[in-house]
Write a structure and sequence with these properties.
It is a single chain. By secondary structure, the protein is mainly alpha-helical. Helix content is 72%, strand content 0%. It has ten helices and no strands. It has helices at residues 3-26, 33-40, 44-50, 54-73, 83-100, 102-112, 121-127, 129-140, 149-168, 176-190. Helix 8 (129-140) packs across helix 9. The longest helix is centred in the first third of the chain and has 24 residues, at 3-26.
Length: 196
């Protein structure tokens, strides 16, 4: 990679990281471009070189962070394992991503409950297509009840987000065994009768 390209990618990444940290602290409306520029150590004009507006920056940050989440979900997936164990690994990955990236958890939750989210529906489905396929496989193999695979993600996500929020706010600290017990309850709720 040449130095100029490295500098461009580095500055863009710095702006995204600064925006992520500031939004957690101040929210969307309390984070002006001038604050982002100062935090990132770049001129305000530099941000506009990469992002035409604050809306464009926030949407780019969503694409960046949701892509990171999507990539993390099937890390270590092994098709030779029983599907149930693969499912548990995927869910543990999901939970651990949030624990390891609290700014991202806060941002993704705020984003999904904002008007910005309506612009990302199609991109969101593309980004999480491999997970939808993973759930579709579970449905086709009759591990899960006959439900639209796209509905499984929000069913599961809510529980994992709540557990991660409790952990991060230190109301409770959960071990992997605790989270596996939670995942077991999710599994029992969506599995097909008599399937394990």
């Amino acid at each position: 990679m040449n130095v100029q390209l490295e500098d461009i990618c580095g500055k863009r990444e710095t702006v995204l990281n600064s925006t992520l940290a500031l939004i957690r602290q101040y929210g969307f409306h309390g984070t002006p471009m001038s604050m982002i520029a100062k935090h990132a150590g770049v001129a305000a004009g530099t941000i506009y070189h990469y992002f035409e507006s604050k809306d464009a920056l926030i949407n780019a940050l969503y694409e960046h962070e949701s892509s990171r989440l999507a990539a993390s979900l099937l890390v270590g997936d092994d098709e030779s394992l029983h599907y149930k164990e693969r499912f548990f690994r995927c869910m543990l990955n999901h939970y651990h991503f949030y624990i390891g990236n609290p700014d991202t958890l806060y941002f993704l939750e705020q984003y999904s409950n904002s008007p910005y989210a309506k612009n990302q529906v199609e991109n969101h489905e593309k980004r999480f297509e491999h997970i939808i396929r993973f759930f579709d496989f579970g449905i086709q193999q009759k591990y899960f009840k006959n439900i639209d695979a796209k509905l499984l993600m929000p069913i599961i996500k809510g529980t994992l987000v709540a557990a991660a929020n409790f952990h991060l706010r230190q109301h409770m600290v959960f071990s992997d065994d605790d989270i596996r017990a939670v995942i077991s309850m999710i599994w029992d709720g969506i599995k097909k009768q008599g399937k394990d």
